[in-house]
Amino acid sequence: MVTQVFAEEELERLRGFPEIGRDELFRFFTLAPADVAFVDPGRGRGPADRLGLSVALCTLPWLGFVPDDVVAAPPAAVARLADQLGVDPGVLRTYGRRATTRTEHLRLVAQYRGWRLPTSLEFKEFDEFLLARALEHDSPTLLFRLACEYLISVRVIRPGPVIVLERVARARTEAQRETYDRLAHEFTERRCSGLDGLLVVDPEIGMTRLRWLTTGPVEASPAGVKAEVGKLEFLRGLGADALDLSVLPAERRRFLATVGRRLTAQALARRDPQRRYPILLTLLAQSAVDVLDEVVGLFDQAVTARESKAERTMVRFAVMVVMYDNSHHHRLEELMQVIRVTTDLTVPDIEEARAFYADYLGLDGEDMGLDWVTRFVVPNSGEHIQLVSRDATAPENPLLTVKVDDVDDAYAAARRRGYEVVYPLTTEPWGIRRFFVRAPDGTVLNIAQHRDP
After folding, report:
1. What is the mean pLDDT of the chain?
2. Is residue 443 within 8 Å of 396, Cβ to Cβ?
3. 329 and 445 belong to one structural domain
């Protein structure tokens, strides 16, 4: 497993000195007066030992360990230390010919720096750290780097890279086991059957439900919205909207859901249940969130497109209204004043639509006291739309409602200009005086004015 993470050449590199940058050179290879006194006590230590000891002294906090081949230290670092000690950099070639010298110097450096070799207690704490990180990240190379950074932070001398990688591998395995154990209460027989069903081709859609769920919409159209709503209903049927996976770190949930999207149904089916079910469960929970976001986004795009069309129609209509005919000498100051424009969406069933717009999209409903029309408002912004099933009195539904300051003048102006009146000026029982007019492009507008009782 270790060789699958790093090639032998990379392992060998991890045992030795890397290249050093300018910042690291000055940060780690600058000796304080106390350091010089430690390296050169005044007697009993020759130039090679003083230089070799200073290399170990500066390398430990830099790398978290001291490579066996101290002589291979970066030449720039050796030269800098030699200059501070007043010795020839070349004497390092004769350093550490006896392994006991290097071992004793490492012990002295660790004692001076306040570092320690890992014992069973340090390894226990190290493993706990790795498990916590493995629950957040699954990349062995990232975990190896985090492990090295952790050991430096607690001043524990890093063991060989193979030992670290073995503990990383153990942590990843333990993280998989821990993930399953934390979610075990969710894996009922019914739930597992539903999860496995995601991997089977459904004749109704011609693909697996896994692929269906992870395939996004093609366009923002009514058909696209309907398809995504179908996914929401399917996910709700599996209880995805009620899943609480907070027992897992957010990073772990994202990782598992990503794996679920990346792997094929066949690859997931081949995995053992302890690994397969957590992946599918987190994918299910994340899909409930993602698909809802897609529905909201598609709906917003669809409404925006429809509002844009309505707005263009209204602009054209307004332009035709404000353009007066010189032959009739219409004055601009006699034109109507538009107070508000509202988009009207035709839906087959108000109550069924109410559940979607309120529950799914989170819009605030306004009770208008009528069973064929209702209004939904975006919280905080005040933007709104009206849903109409079948107008109570007019022969067809409008695309938008235009509130004006004087509906009678607007009606007279429309008649004067020869626009087609779809529904005549009428005072409705619910307190609105209105008429419907067809714009030149065929769009029907409801021109209305509220009449106080």
Report:
1. 87
2. no
3. yes
